[in-house]
């Protein structure tokens, strides 16, 4: 597949997706055209897809993901998610290969070798302590979710340049230094951090940790409310505001009662 064919297919898929938004016919020709074009795009070579997605001359390719992945037609939405997930894997794999070169890591050319390199990276960040290594593994799995959660091209490029194992090891080391070992009174804090890092409704926290916006040292000192997802934080804020309003109304009522009593006397 050539670049011009890739662009033609993407344009055809976009037009058909927009056309399918009009009307109420579930199996309209536009839906079929869009799905067919998306399937053809999935056949594009990995190197071509990677080049087109990150090319700033074609920003619509990265920014149009919502048109497909959140389309009201189930077939288009399903195929769109498969396509963008595939492209994300290409970005992640290629980025990891490129970022490994300055550190003299082997360039991965197939999936089997990629698994071997990942295992080597894992071994290089183990401690020999089963409890510490378990914490690192849980953190790594949480950080690895980011690759499938970001949809903005600029963020995709940041993700592929990050080393999830190194970040997981750094965070665990900060936890050990600040909290001590995973036992006794500190178990609750460990579990709170690990839960919030892996919470499916809390992608912002793990993304910020992976990108270094929240350091391991900062993460360890954060309260439960700070680590919680935006939704939970908003709910907590509403509860606090409601309690504050209730208290203010109580104080006002008492002051009015006292004022009335003084007038009566």
TrEMBL record:
It holds the Pfam family TFIIS_M. Residues 222-249 form a coiled coil. GO terms for biological process: DNA-templated transcription. InterPro entries: TFIIS/CRSP70_N_sub, TFIIS_cen_dom, TFIIS_cen_dom_sf. SMART domains: TFS2M (SM00510), TFS2N (SM00509). Keywords: Coiled coil. Residues 131-255 form the TFIIS central domain. One of its GO terms (cellular component) is nucleus. This is TFIIS central domain-containing protein.
